[in-house]
Specification:
It is built from 10 helices and 2 strands, in the order H-H-H-H-H-H-H-E-H-H-E-H. Helix 2 packs across helix 3, helix 2 packs antiparallel against helix 6 and helix 8 crosses helix 9.
Length: about 190
């Protein structure tokens, strides 16, 4: 029997795999949270499938999303990234990734982990929404607004409320799987 999935991922094997294995699964590992933050940053203004298709290129270009290394990128490394056709070559987003890695380290120092910090906005537990049609899922919430504002105050870039809500969905801080999707109850 064919599995019922969220409508947004249907028809593309990569999208379906991402949906089935990653999207909405609670992530508490700082390295993975940073990876999703980088990918969401680059996704701003583009489709998520575009970023997913380039994910391995991003992984290679950004040293396996190692935020400690990225925080120390110099102008030579930034220039090389801007020549890398495998990623989205947006100067502001590349620079934001370096800035965000530095801010990420500061948050870790202040809170013990980025995970403790970010999950604090949902009191450590995923919010389980009841989305019937993905088109009805919110693009932002009061929580994503507050988190976005706080991240900006901490020096992060490209972390508007829509980007942050997408990050919350991807990392399982909110469960926005459609209620008839097989993953809704699994995550």
């Amino acid at each position: 029997m064919k599995k019922q999935r969220c409508f947004w991922c249907l028809g593309d094997a990569l999208y379906e795999k991402y949906h089935d294995e990653e999207w909405g699964v609670p992530v508490r590992d700082d390295a993975t949270l940073f990876e999703f933050l980088v990918l969401e940053t680059f996704q701003a203004g583009l489709s998520w499938i575009t970023i997913l298709r380039k994910r391995e290129n991003f992984r290679k270009a950004f040293d396996n999303f190692d935020y400690k290394k990225i925080a120390s990128y110099d102008e030579t490394k930034i220039a090389s990234l801007l020549q890398d056709a495998g990623i989205v070559r947006n100067k502001l987003k590349v620079r934001a990734t370096v800035t965000n890695a530095q801010a990420f380290l500061s948050v870790q120092k202040e809170f013990g982990s980025f995970s403790d910090y970010i999950w604090g906005f949902v009191e450590g537990q995923p919010i389980k929404n009841r989305v019937v049609n993905y088109k009805d899922a919110p693009a932002t919430t009061q929580i994503s607004d507050a988190l976005s504002k706080d991240l900006k105050k901490k020096g992060f870039k490209f972390v508007g409320s829509t980007v942050i809500y997408a990050h919350m969905q991807a990392t399982g801080m909110v469960n926005d799987h459609e209620i008839d999707c097989f993953r809704y109850d699994e995550v």
